[in-house]
Amino acid sequence: MLTWAKAQLPYRVYKSYSAAGGNLLAAGMSFQAVFATFAAIWVGFSLTGIFLADRPDIRRAVIAFINAQVPDLIRTGGPIDPKVLESMTSFGWTGGLAVVVVLYTAINWLNYVRTAVRTIFSLPQSTVNYILLKVYDLVLALIYVIFVLLSATATVGLTKLSGLVFPELGIADKSGIGKIVFQVIGLFVVFLFDTAVLAAIIRILSGVPIPWRILRNGTLLGGFALMALKVLGSYVLTRPESNPLLASFTVFIGLLIYFNFASRIYLLATSWVAVSMRESGTAMQDLGWVVPHRHHVN
After folding, report:
1. Which InterPro entries match (predicted)?
2. Binning pLDDT at 50, 70 and 90, where does residue 155 land?
3. pTM higher than 0.90, yes or no?
């Protein structure tokens, strides 16, 4: 039985992940992610308070989307009170300072993730010009923010559309069936978002041309694992009273543990892709750059 298990791809993936120091790399990623998240939310809602002051529905959708990514991060009595965010309608000197902090932490996080991903691929550190790489990471961070806003806007549109369609089908918005449909759609949106982000992280930050079939398999598995983690995290992080030993440190420790598991999933998915490439005989060509490269696969 043990011999059979060692012959399977998941075992070889985990072995490669462990050999590269995956757990240590994930710990560094999660530490950077905690600070980047709080800074990004502060800046993001300061800006949306200015430009989306008359669109509270989009602001609420953004909060819901963030809570889907980091379980119940923004809630009354939670790590971040939504009333504080909703009252942010100006961008003073504190906002300017927060911009500097969020740019620094976001770029540092992306740089650390790049190092971790390339380590899993057994590649040296990128030789791209330091300044150019930082500018590129800044662009990636801005694209991610735009992606979140577009996803939240789409959620608002789907909600309004369901308000028109459900009554025609004889389904009340607040009925049991309506709630189930919304939950299923919400999980599907989160799954698509996570899979897309994971694919971008592996392909862009590695700087390696990856066949679509191999990238697809690794990111789909990672997307499912992340979705399961978020469902479980939503249950655990909203019940701090069930663990009195961590009560006074629930916010920081809970988020750090959550990000640590998420980072492990990111790197395990990366390891799945790397091992699959090696075993399929696909050349692991280091382009020395971070732009995706076309790779034709028959």
Report:
1. Virul_fac_BrkB
2. low
3. no
